[in-house]
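Recall that a protein's primary structure is simply its ordered list of amino acids. Everything else, from secondary elements to tertiary packing, is in principle encoded there. The following example makes that idea concrete.
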Amino acid sequence: MQIDFKFHNFESSDALKTYATDKIGKLQKYVRAPLEVHITFSLERISHRVDVTFNAGPEHHQAHAEESEMYAAIDAVVDKIQRQINRSKDQHHNHRRGPLPEDAAGE
């Protein structure tokens, strides 16, 4: 897993890096390919923004979140990425399955 951090308008923090690495690391179990993640932390007045680009082989996901605290923004963006991964897995699974039995019974 390769994680790239960028900080805009404030100093980098090891605590933020560790927290984000732990949260993103939990997504590793949902994908097979090695992860390449780019995380950008930015601060504009009172809004804390986190942008994440998540690449795992052929899958690419992007999300951003703005919150009043940086840790809450990290949690929100990880939840968004996890929903995107689950949605893409469901689409792939349903696409390969074929028609459902209840669809054929109604005809």
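The first strand starts at residue 2 and ends at 8. The chain is about 40% helix and 35% strand.
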